[in-house]
């Protein structure tokens, strides 16, 4: 068992609308909500976050939001200018789990990200 909580971030329709509107390559096939969430972002977070999630989120949402945006477009000029907690919650569905079990019989390796 790891001393971390797990945060799954799934995008909502307003995020998908932004993906399609911000796309700098005209003519691309539009992204759907289903396809955008085929491989959702998952983060290991502080192990107390489950109990104090709203407080934790207020102080930590910005790097999470930026990470999710960067998965779609690496150019911050394409990102929304006013990236607030309210926008993050309107664009993303957040799911927190308090029990994280490691079933791999090998050490965890930090690859530097």
Secondary structure class reads: alpha+beta
Fraction of residues in helix: 25-40%
Total number of helical segments? Answer: 4
Q: What are the segments in which pLDDT stays under 50 over at least 5 consecutive residues?
A: none
Order of helices and strands: EHHEHHE
- Evaluate the radius of gyration: 16 Å
Describe this structure in words.
The protein has 113 residues and is α+β, with helices and mostly antiparallel strands. It is built from 4 helices and 3 strands. The chain has a 3-stranded antiparallel sheet.
For this entry, give a set of tags.
single chain; 113 residues; alpha+beta; three-stranded antiparallel β-sheet; 4 helices; 3 strands; 36% helix
SSE map:
Blueprint: E1 4-11, H1 13-22, H2 33-36, E2 41-46, H3 53-72, H4 85-91, E3 92-97
Antiparallel strand pairs: 1-2, 1-3
Give a quick precis of the structure.
The chain is of the alpha+beta class and 113 residues long.
